[in-house]
Amino acid sequence: MKKSNMKFAVILTVVAVALLAIITVISSNQTLEESEIVREEVDLTGQPILGQDNAPVTVVEFGDFKCPSCKAWGENVYPQLVEDYILSGDVKFSYVNVLFHGEESVIGAMAAESVYKQDPSVYWDFHKALFDAQPTENHDGLWITTEKILEVSKGIAYINQEQLKQDVEQELTAEQVNIDKDLFTKHNVSQTPTININGITMEDPFDYEAIKEVIDRELGADKNE
Ligand code: CA
């Protein structure tokens, strides 16, 4: 090989390697292909919805009133979600009851379903009030009782306390609670809270940056449609 040819071959190789490196960087920065995303959309028929019904992105929390992490999620992550996406109409939010803490989870869920059935517009007030009532210390100790439910609901308008008491004590909202049970079973929920965005389950419910990334990607996909 002539010296000039050799030089040409070296340059070609360098260029090829550089191109390959650039392509690798570009492709690793690309967003996930739709086919790579695992989607299991949650059927929200009869579930409480916060935000606009026609919001393009749906965030579902599988939660439990007895669970301290759910209280923490509600206090630390949820307000940012409301501020950044729900108020703007980009996201609607829903909550499905999970029953991982025995009888107290069931009482909490029965009560929440009763309030929702009585008046959906006060559901979220009750939801927040019940999580607020969760003790910060010794949350494992008994605290979700019919008495506590009635105490929590006292300050909220439009809740018929007698109806609420009956629904909880006679398990009159068992049908709605069972719908939630079927949902968390179907979606293989193994920890609370579990956050599902347009069918995509978040690995870490407390990683708000990751939540934002998925929501923004979903909003982008919606705009490109
Ligand atoms: Ca429900």
Written overview of the protein:
This protein has 225 residues and is an alpha+beta fold. The chain has one domain: 3-Layer(aba) Sandwich (Glutaredoxin), CATH 3.40.30.10. Helices cover 53% and strands 10% of the residues. The protein is built from 9 helices and 5 strands. It has helices at 3-29, 68-76, 78-86, 102-118, 123-132, 146-153, 161-169, 174-186, 208-224, and strands at residues 49-50, 57-63, 91-97, 194-197, 200-201. A 5-stranded mixed sheet has the order 1-3-2-4-5, with helices on both faces. A hairpin with a 2-residue loop joins β4 and β5 (200-201). α4 (102-118) runs antiparallel to α5 and α4 packs antiparallel against α7 (161-169). The protein is elongated and about 100 Å long. The relative contact order is 0.16. Calcium ion binds next to β3 and α8.
Each distinct ligand: calcium ion
- Biggest β-sheet, characterized? 5 strands, mixed
Gap from first CA to last CA:
55 Å
CATH fold assignment: Glutaredoxin
The proportion of residues in beta strands is 5-15%
CATH architecture: 3-Layer(aba) Sandwich
Number of strands: 5
From the spread of the alpha carbons, the general shape counts as elongated
The CATH class turns out to be: Alpha Beta
Helix-residue proportion: 40-55%
Keyword list:
single chain, 225 residues, alpha+beta, Glutaredoxin, 5-stranded mixed sheet, 9 helices, 53% helix, binds calcium ion
Short description:
This protein is an alpha+beta fold and 225 residues long. It contains nine helices and five strands, in the order H-E-E-H-H-E-H-H-H-H-H-E-E-H.
